Amino acid sequence: MWVLLVTLLAAAPASDSQPLSFEEAQAQAAKAALPASLARAVETRRVWDTRLPALAANPTLSVIPGRRAQPDGPGFEMTVGVEQPLFLSNLAGAQRDAARAETRALEKEAVAALLDRRLEVARAWLTLWAAQQAAASAAQEAELAGTLRKSVAEALALGGATRLELAEAEGFEAEARLAGLSRDAEVTHARLSLAVLLGRPPAAALVAADALPVVALPPASEEARWLARAGELPEAEARRLLGAAERARAAEVRAARGWQVTLGAQGVREYYGGVSGLLMVGVTPPVFDSGQRERGALLAAAERLDGEAQEAAVRAAAELALAFHEREHADAQLSLVEKSLVPTAEEAARLADVLLRAGQSTLPDVLRARRARAAAHARLAFARSEASLAAARLHLLLSALP
User: Fold this and answer.
1) pLDDT band at 176 (very low <50, low <70, confident <90, very high)
2) Of the candidates 45, 185, 148, 113, which has an alpha carbon nearest to the alpha carbon of residue 366?
3) Fewer CB under 10 Å: which end of the chain, C or N?
4) End-to-end distance of the chain based on CA atoms, in angstroms?
5) In Gene Ontology terms, what is one molecular function of this protein (predicted)?
């Protein structure tokens, strides 16, 4: 049942699918749920940052009606007042500074999340591409194995082959078909992984296009210059900006507990009908409470984030150095497979067939050569995928630098 399910999932949807190019997959990565929601969050923060008021506190309006009893008769009284607190510590400016710091940190977090998603999509797309190539090669080998088995069966009927040779041909065909089923399962797994990253339903018939991505990369001589800037990668920058935002919030708390002046005015209607006006000035000095409780927690969090930013910068430098190394390693590996492994396996399989027809080789020799050829072609597909992934990964990391 599992083999049947894998075969149906791998083969059936692909026939009606439009191939998805690497560039299209990268574009769709930005539209996935998490990166898109972070982008909307940044835009929301920017809009509300522009709406911050010039004054940090609202006025207070008061109305005090009353009735006074007097010997000459009761009278109606009313007091109307307005008070406006003013912060000499520029609380409104501190609020704007904190909001901007938080928005900058959120922007870098959104960029870091998008970079991570694009790196994951690049790996998933290239894994799917390699799995498709290997599955196609396995299907071709299975077809050739079936043709060989039929030829040996016909030769056996004419007395030109033995039952042992037929059994070996049948075993080779069974192995080829099992390899094809295994490759189909890899295609299904890779397709589902890519669908999850792109926010597609599991039934989405994703097929990687045949063309591999072509990206522009700097020469190896510029590696040191790029590594020196690794600390500017989004993850490290996001941690640094989060620490700055914590300090800005601590400054906001300090400003909220700073010197506060309250200006007010009152209008009073006396019971006998007279009207008077009063002015009021109040001062609230930060004698005891200056936000020590909140500021301590915020500044401690900022120190922790500074350490995280430093470690993130070290990790970013190591990741970028590894990306440069993987590019060279994958290119060298691909060159070896293309120029040596595959041509050698092809020539060995061709010579084995020729020698078999000439009566100078045996069927097991041909089967071994064909197995080696199939393995070489599968290795070629994965080597191309790894080389493209190394190049795309390096390109994406360098593109994320300011």
Assistant:
1) confident
2) 148
3) N
4) 52
5) efflux transmembrane transporter activity
